[in-house]
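[Structure tokenization] protein backbone as discrete codes

[Encoding] learned vocabulary of local backbone shapes

[Begin record] amino acids and matching fold tokens:

___
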Amino acid sequence: MSALHPAGLYDVYYDGPIYVFTDYWDDDGDNLLQMVSVPIVEKPVTTLRVRRASSTTISASSTSFTGPKTITLRGAVRKVKLISNSEAALRLSPNTPVKLYFDPVGSTGPQYKKTVRTNSKGVYTTTARTSRSGKWIAKYPGTDLQAPSKRAVTITVR
């Protein structure tokens, strides 16, 4: 499949027999294992979900400072979009939700802080008060047709 293939759910079929071994040891000594053919008729073997790729970025106005500080977090979301019948590219995505998490050093995991949206150009900007070292994480949750993505920036508070 290529980036030009439409996103969605696809059933995968197999046209032919599947062979299953009926014994696992060569009991009769003829160096052949017994097997049987199992036909699969008109039933999907599996289902694939195809989603277009996405990319999320994040940066901080200051990544190393002393004491608590309000920083500005900036970033963008790009999604694979069709340009023509033969070409696809990552393009900035306007009005897209981005969830921001902060993962302090030594904690048990990231803590959700807020959701921001990209502007008409596909870029988001927000401020955040930071008093501990850790990582700010930007996550685009994805959709049925777009894959999720995330990126982090490390902050050091001395």
